[in-house]
């Protein structure tokens, strides 16, 4: 039975997108020294939203120098209790401007307003609130109280403002200053965050935002004036960064790709498991490094699970990110859409069976229908490579030991899911899964108090929680 | 009796009894193989005199050692903390029983007085005891419950990183113990490139490990030229982490770190370590991964 919904669009009137944006350096918006600006587009309409400066080497120099000055003269020597109050202020302003940030995030990124409004932005505020409280309690955390200095931070486009919060909040709480580069396709909420820093009277230079593409990121990460590199993004770029810091004294944390197994045992509560599978792979269009992109389902319930999953997928509403009824929004960029299409095509070529939810996709913009592949083996590229889109690969297993073996058979190790009603089996499986986050009878849950990060080639270091401070303290 | 006759006929300078020398080999998978390459190198004492031939490990030996370490990982990381602590303590006991032997071996290599060498040995024994005690405590110190804003149980615990490659420091015994113990106490298995200058106490330590109920493959010890073998270890795709404690050359350390980036190994860079000082938790914490498990609360 299909339900008809009237459109329920969130108002765009709360955002005011300027035609062009400069770089945020030393507390002020400034033009880039050289280089062409880049355009950021609304992936749901392909409409150009704004022109944004691209920071070149001279701009990065300026930003790092501003961060260094702020570290040495102001932030590094400020009592933790005072730093805390700035972070609390920022958390409050984020809450006050939450709707504006949510709408802007959905416009620039393409994610459903339901997610930016209920997940991303509340977590941003919570993250600043959490780390604010640590600023004057570092001695209790177990990692020393000495900051590292200037942190170079490069973040991805899938959770633009949330990833900014994950980077900036612990860095500032520990007494570091930062130069952050938002993703090329999603710079706008970071630039509003720069305004928020101004509204909070954060001392100039403590937070610097340099927009740009990969070159800007590389220049920043390799800059001799930074003490710390924090990166979230692809494993390939993570490798390059790990190589580039070799032989330096820079500290590094990397949060990279994943190919998480979501394991459904035969005794699982199947309706809940199906909700978890859907949330695991279709949340945020599957643009989630910890997405449950490999479904491992016990053979005896595989048909039942797939039937229910397809029924559920048929009810997913794909479309306008600003519509409050939308479940799956736009793919973030033409480039990402091309990658998803390529890998899905390879899945078919390699013999897996493709099924997509029946849905009408808008004509303009970047869209991909929620899709599952069955008959997938471990050798298939769609079982090994991160697709970073709404595409689920389904594999089966017979015994719990086989499930663990398959789940761990990947160079990644970011997250995993377990669905079973048996407590001892949950703990047995959780112990054996080589992954940094294990969700049992739930999936894709995040919290500022909960450390997040990977094993193996999913990177190193943790973000969130007490453990998240370690990345920003000298020990 | 013929024997009596022989003794009577001996030349005045011949010893009463010819000593049985030890063949120093590698320690891989709980066994003591020679280098697959068949190579060895002479180890010299502090005075430049010949002490023994040690095995000169090859690339293939590195691979064999990594394979043995990987094979041992499941069992060792799955052992109870109490069990791992017992075994580390047992290593201390076995070492204590051979204090004099180790002191002689250390002194022969370094040329220091026996008293100084004994103090090194004692510190090494005490270090095993110190780490043995951590086996069932570090998870309580490094892990914690997380009060998430929702109806979920949420717990973070440290888990072993996997196979750790170690380039051991040049100094004998204490420095070696100080890099091996923190890696294995948490359930990692290791491949150690022993000090090229002082391989003999390292292999004798392997004899102690082999008789302490430590499962074969948990510690694998290669002697020879770290400059030759370390790149194979650093670039090996089944090694999860790298401790560069013993790499003195900055250029080589950078190159090893670059090789390690290929599969995103965790790397501990060389530092000015004082092996006599209380180690702290840094090295132990460098080779664990925080795993966070969520579960809903409900009825």
Automatic annotation (TrEMBL), chain A:
Keyword rRNA processing applies: no
Residue ranges of the TM segments: none
GO molecular function: oxidoreductase activity, acting on the aldehyde or oxo group of donors, NAD or NADP as acceptor
Domain named Aldehyde dehydrogenase: residues: 33-473
Record keywords, A-Z: Oxidoreductase
Listed InterPro entries: Ald_DH/histidinol_DH, Ald_DH_C, Ald_DH_CS_GLU, Ald_DH_N, Aldehyde_DH_dom
Keyword Oxidoreductase: yes
Active site: 255
Family, similarity comment: Belongs to the aldehyde dehydrogenase family.
Name of this chain's protein: Aldehyde dehydrogenase
Automatic annotation (TrEMBL), chain B:
Residues annotated as domain Aldehyde dehydrogenase: 45-268
Superkingdom as given in the UniProt entry: Bacteria
Signal peptide stretch: none
Record key words, sorted: Oxidoreductase
Gene3D superfamilies: Aldehyde Dehydrogenase, Chain A, domain 1 (3.40.605.10)
SUPFAM superfamilies with a match to the protein in the record: ALDH-like (SSF53720)
GO MF annotation list: oxidoreductase activity
InterPro entries: Ald_DH/histidinol_DH (IPR016161), Ald_DH_N (IPR016162), Aldehyde_DH_dom (IPR015590)
Protein name: Aldehyde dehydrogenase
Species the sequence originates in: Actinocatenispora rupis
